[in-house]
Amino acid sequence: MLSAVYFLGEAWAAAGWEGRPYRWSVDAISELGVPETRSWAGEQVTSTRSAVMNATFIGSGVRAALAGLLLAPFVPRRGRWVVLPLVVAYVLGLIVVGVFPTATVGVRATMHGIGALLAVVGGGILLLAIAIAFSRRHPALATFTGVCAAVSILGSVLAVWGSAHFGLYERIAVNAVVLWQVVTGVVVLATAPPAPSVDVRQGE
Q1: Res. 191: pLDDT tops 80
Q2: Which of 81, 111, 116, 176 could form a disulfide with 151 if both were Cys (CB 3.0 to 4.6 A apart)?
Q3: Are the beta carbons of 142 and 124 closer than 8 angstroms?
């Protein structure tokens, strides 16, 4: 459920964009996390809430790490040693993206690129691994996860080849994973057995 906070953080950060309008279908998500004022086509642009976007990235990584720890015992043994390392890579990617905002050159640019690869592309691959791991035990979950994985991976491929709408394709890749997290979290909460009641008798 906390995965939905990602969308709120992104929207709040975008609302603080100053300069030419932020283009959701063109501009990268990471542009919202750049703290410096930059010049694009002769116009100054600033993400005044860059800290919010970067905190959203880091918070998403921490949340994914906690979710991974809680759900690790339920991952089928045959897929556990593939899924869990991919969870670690995905978590590290999100945190690195938030710690190192995007840039054009230098260490920050390199680190951000590595983090984005782990988080965006790695997220789709992670879902694919989860779909395969649960294909026998939970076919319905595996099917939904597989669909989200396919959409995410397709978004990543389109982002590489369709730079004119990079923001749109990147969001397809990222949001498919976040949507999976939200829906899966809701289903888990809705189907969890109620906690056993404790009968406390007076006078005993």
Answers
A1: no
A2: 176
A3: no
Q: How far apart are CA 182 and CA 163, in angstroms?
A: 28
The most distant pair of C-alpha atoms in the chain lies apart, rounded to whole Å, by 80
Does this model's pTM top 0.85? Answer: yes
* Structure tokens given for 108: 């920050």
**17-31 burial, b if ≥16 CB within 10 A, otherwise e?**
beeeebeeeebebbb
Per residue in 44-77, pLDDT tens? 899 999 999 999 999 999 999 998 898 888 898 8
Torsion of CA 196, 198, 199, 204, to 10 degrees: 150
- How many whole angstroms from its chain centre is CA 144? 17
CB of 122 within 8 A of CB of 89? yes
Task: Report residue 3 as tokens.
Answer: 């995965």
